[in-house]
Fold:
Amino acid sequence: GEPTAVVIRLAGRAAPDGASTTVAGTEDTVTVSVSARVQPLGPLPLRLEVRASASAVVEPGAADSGALVPGAVGPGAVAPGAGSPGGPVP
Structure:
């Protein structure tokens, strides 16, 4: 039942630096997606994009409260450093 902006900030805290976080939903479901470029072999020049998403049923009453507007998509890019865990959520 959290507002879209709060969901994006929380996902950004859990994501690595430079990750992209989006939130999309309907009246019945919400999906949070995170993607990031990683270098799995350290200093070698191999970079891969990894993605993950999670979906859930909207909590009763959340759609009525305006917590997530159906079809809403949050900002695509999380500012560098926003993916660092432990920061405060405004």
Residues 69-90 have pLDDT under 50 and may be disordered. The longest strand covers residues 29-38.
